[in-house]
Amino acid sequence: MNSYDYVVVGAGSAGCVLAARLTEDPDVRVALIEAGGPDTAQEIHIPAAFPQLFKTEFDWDLDSGPEPGIGDRRTYLPRGKVLGGSSSINAMIYMRGNRADYDGWAAAGATGWSYPEVLPYFRRSEDNERGEDTFHSVGGPLTVSDSRSQHPLATAFVQAAEQAGYKRNEDFNGDTQFGVGRFQLTQRGGMRCSTAVAYLHPVLERRNLTVLGAARAHRVVIEGGRATGVEVNRGSTVEVIRADREVILSAGTYESPKLLMLSGIGPAATLSAFGIDVLRDLPVGQGLQDHYMALLNFRTGVESLMSAASPENAQLLESAGRGPLTCNIGEAGGFFGSRDGLDAPDVQFHMAPVLFHEEGLGPVTEHGFAFGPCVLAPTSRGQVTLRSPRPDAAPRIVHNYLTTAEDRDCIVGGMRIALRIAAQDALTEVITGPFDVPDTHSDAELLAFAQRVGQTLYHPTSTCAIGAVVDPELRVLDVAGLRVVDASVFPTVPRGNTNAPVIMAAEKAADLIRRAA
Ligand SMILES: Cc1cc2nc3c(=O)[nH]c(=O)nc-3n(C[C@H](O)[C@H](O)[C@H](O)COP(=O)(O)OP(=O)(O)OC[C@H]3O[C@@H](n4cnc5c(N)ncnc54)[C@H](O)[C@@H]3O)c2cc1C
For the Glucose-methanol-choline oxidoreductase N-terminal domain, which residue ranges apply (predicted)? Predict the structure, then answer.
């Protein structure tokens, strides 16, 4: 059979949630189409191993075009290509963003997406090991837990930030986001809790769910203004998987707009240039946002994660779910204002108790650690367009990192916070020298450093945004039977890591889809 009620493209953070929620009704048949394979590899589940997944079969291994704001550098863009999608290769930080993000979306026309309206969906997904309170919940599919690693270098970072005058924050998803501390993580028993683990694996036996792995969607089939199926390449054959009710694109911020464009939905000029018939002229791919991060790397005499992969630590992880291998690399961090008087933070810090340089691809040959700021509420916008009309060609991606004065000021302000924290006793006691930090501290030098070392924080959003490409119910404008549900629909990138917001959006979308049936 190749006909279903719903065809979901992409088994990532959003797709796994949708597949699980929609098949709760035994009368609804769902096909979940995923280009990658199963998530059985050990490195996927061992938290400290996540950078080892970079540039492997589990990674789309995309890159950006020359980025004009950072000296025309191309940047490496990992994306998960496996069940669980990017939630199977991410750093597991559980962060919702700021109340102001969602209230801002609603004020700009995204009806139904204000903070009080999305909070129930964050809570629905959540099983927080700290228990229930106003913000948090228990009993949901997604396990949220405190870090079991408690790495001493992460502790030193938090102490130094406190010595620099920043307040401790025990819950960045609670009352206020400002402050420093340890992040909560999407981990269960010290292991990764991806959306495949949380949502998909428990329901794989359902008879009304069909998961098609190693199946790459080429385009949406649209007949008479209605999406009726998806053209899918499964190795040697290209076939159409039909959708009686809806096609739902959950292929992520870079691939969902590409699929729309290949289906004739996108900027008319771009489509025409590639010989694609224009069905709907919409600003698909425009409005791309991401968090640009610049890390300072220091040498240390303290044992970093470099030596974590020992047989003893593997045994500790396996038997008790404890030890340094449970470290998600970004264990600690915080939220700051790059200038005074902000109601919501515009800078987030991540701290890695191991060297993290050359976009996470640099060799780790000595003990060290890294931390630094990202531009949390960027004003610059980029775009995803086509490189070729061939479905197997990677999209052309430009984020326009640091192309606005606001974003440049923000990263410089963030670098100053980093230097202030690095100068406190708790860190000077453990730093044995610079590995890669700015030599001089003028604004121009700090900016040049950030432009040279900066990288994606892996949070691309907004290429099929609510209001521009989809309506607040995530239906593609003026096309029946077609929705987009993933990070691409966010009107702006939330102030925080994006996995939890995507899961929230998919939980909400499942309700919207059920209600429309
Ligand atoms: C290295 C890394 C670290 C990160 N760290 C964190 C973190 O610590 N905390 C956090 O909150 N967020 C983090 N993120 C971001 C977060 O994981 C993503 O925002 C989120 O997973 C995006 O969800 P999505 O559903 O939009 O896309 P994805 O999860 O990327 O899912 C898209 C899915 O679609 C599939 N697909 C794409 N094209 C096709 C096609 N043509 N046919 C079939 N299938 C297709 C892909 O293989 C993938 O499985 C990180 C991301 C990365 C890459």
Answer: 80-103, 252-266
Contact 108, 467 (CB under 8 A): yes
Phi, psi of 370 (to 5 degrees): -140, 145
Mean pLDDT of 16-43: 98
Best mutation site among 458, 490, 492, 507 for ligand 1 pocket (most ligand atoms within 8 Å of CB): 458
d(CA 254, CA 455): 17
Whether 151 sits among the annotated catalytic residues: the reply is no
For 186-243, give the DSSP string.
SEETTEE--HIIIIIGGGTT-TTEEEE-S-EEEEEEEETTEEEEEEEEETTEEEEEEE
**CA 438 to the chain's CA centroid:** 28
pLDDT digits (tens, 9 = 90+) for 46-101: 999 999 999 999 999 999 999 999 999 999 999 999 999 999 999 999 999 999 99
Q: Domains (ranges, CATH) in the chain? A: 1-40+78-144+193-288+459-517 (3.50.50.60)
Around ligand 1, the residues with Cβ closer than 6 Å are 9-15, 33-36, 78-81, 85-87, 89-93, 95, 216-217, 250-253, 255, 259, 330, 458-459, 486-487, 497-500, 502
Q: What is the largest CA-CA distance in the chain?
A: 69
Nearest CA to ligand 1 atom 53: 79
Supply 105's token pair.
């979306």
> What is the residue with the minimal CA distance to atom 35 of ligand 1?
10
Taking the centre of ligand 1 as the mean of its atom positions, its distance from the CA of residue 100, in whole angstroms, is 24
* Atom of ligand 1 at shortest range from CA of 85: 49
Among residues 151, 291, 357, 459, the one annotated as catalytic is 459
pLDDT value at 36 more than 90: yes
Written as one string, the DSSP assignment of 242-287 is: EEEEEEEE-SHHHHHHHHHHHTTEE-HHHHHHTT---SEE--TTEE
Helices and strands counted in the chain (H then E): 13, 27
Measured CA distances, 115 to 131, 491, 494 (Å): 21, 14, 12
pTM over 0.95: yes
- Would you call 114 exposed, middle or buried from its count of C-beta atoms within 10 A (0-12, 13-18, 19+)? middle
Say if CB 496 and CB 97 are below 8 A apart.
yes
